[in-house]
Amino acid sequence: MKAIYALTDILTLALKAGLLAHQSGAGTHRTSLIIQRTARALGAVQVEVIISSTNIGATIEREHERETGFRKAPHMGVNFSLLTSLDGWLFALEQGQLDADAAHSALDLIAQAKGHYPRSVVTLFVGLSCGAFAALFGGDTAAILITTLGASVGMAVRFQLVLQHFKPFVFASVASFVALLCTGLLRDFTSTPDTAMAASVLFLIPGVPLINGASDLLNANYLNGIVRFTMSAVIVLGIAIGISLALRILGI
């Protein structure tokens, strides 16, 4: 016989799962589905979800019972490994492999899991990816190397600013300034300096917000789509300001 859980417990778990998804880079439609599927897997009959850029909420119903709850959802960045783990957790819940208590414990483990790679490794490979873009743009070997160096330094600065809770506009401006300045100071070592400097700031392009913004618009979540595009525009503006300041200092 299937266990019957209190609506309060169901709502708490559903919002907890939705909050993790929303803060890890899931689009509005995906976050809404996670909340709905979690609540229905535990016995809710009707689930209504509301999601904004910084809040999530849900109302769940079962016969004559009804519960409503909201959670603050500050932006935490992108974590695809967490989203993948969350999908596995949700599948196990729907298949009846987890009860409510086990689901809470499993969700806590997912939330507390550390990233697969340390920041130093991520920083290095972000730099290498920008170096690869320099190669695709036709840069010579020296351009690839100085792009890798500049982007790595810029990414390290970005990490530090994010850990200190600076807003996206600030870390985009400062990181792009540092990355371009480092690359520009070494431009005499390459015959394709423009390629190196252009590729050194590509790690800051807000790809996930742009993709999620387009997804929101296509799924008729127009307000959230506009919010994501606006946030992306602010980041791009920050990149432009950082680049402008670096170019002015370099005299280019």
Can you describe what's shown?
This protein has 10 helices and 3 strands, in the order ααβββαααααααα. The protein is mainly alpha-helical and 252 residues long. It has a 3-stranded antiparallel β-sheet, covered by helices on one side. β1 and β2 (55-62) form a beta hairpin. α2 (28-41) packs parallel to α3 (80-94), α5 runs antiparallel to α6 and α7 runs antiparallel to α8 (193-199). The model has no long low-confidence stretch (mean pLDDT 90).
Could you give a quick summary of the protein structure above?
The protein has 252 residues and is mainly α. The protein is built from ten helices and three strands. The protein is 66% helix and 9% strand.
Comma- or semicolon-separated keywords:
about 250 residues; 3 strands; mainly alpha; about 65% helix
Beta strand %:
5-15%
Q: Globular, elongated, flat, extended or rod-shaped: what is the shape?
A: elongated
Tally the helices: what do you get? Answer: 10
Rg, rounded, reads: 22 Å
Strand order of the largest sheet: 1-2-3
Report the structural category.
mainly alpha
Average predicted confidence as pLDDT:
90
Q: How many beta strands in the DSSP annotation? A: 3
Q: Main β-sheet: number of strands, strand sense, barrel status?
A: 3 strands, antiparallel
Order of helices and strands: HHEEEHHHHHHHH
Low-confidence stretches: none
Instruction: For the record, give the distance between the C-alpha atoms at the N and C termini, rounded to a whole number.
Output: 74 Å
Helix share of residues?
55-70%
Family: Belongs to the ThrE exporter (TC 2.A.79) family.
Transmembrane segments: 121-146, 166-186, 195-214, 226-250
Subcellular location: Cell membrane
Pfam family, one: ThrE
